[in-house]
């Protein structure tokens, strides 16, 4: 009986530790996404912490082709300030929004208006 209680207590400690680490990593990824900027068709798109499904493969408009340093403003089409060279982004269907595959392997929502 005591072994079962000790095991359950140990399991609870590990679960809390991993949940706390996961939340911290999620916060870091959200912060990185909100600082992200991508230029597509002469338009700057600003990252948000929103994620969602990309849609079908026909939605892909291109791939990130180059990157500037974090904090810099991209100046060429297909250029980001968050790396991810080779990752796809979707078309803007007139709503000022695209989806971009980022390092966390999620499609993040980007808008033409800077949310900050």
Describe the protein.
This protein has 116 residues and is an alpha+beta fold. The protein has one domain. It is 28% helix and 30% strand. It contains one helix and eight strands, in the order αββββββββ. The chain has one helix at residues 2-34, and strands at residues 37-40, 43-52, 60-63, 66-67, 79-80, 88-90, 97-101, 107-111. The strands form three sheets. A four-stranded antiparallel sheet has the order 1-2-8-7. A hairpin with a 5-residue loop joins strand 7 and strand 8. The chain is globular and about 30 Å long. 18% of the residues are buried. The model is unreliable at 6-30 (pLDDT under 50).
Give a quick precis of the structure:
The chain has 116 residues and is α+β, with helices and mostly antiparallel strands. The protein contains one helix and eight strands; from the N terminus they run αββββββββ.
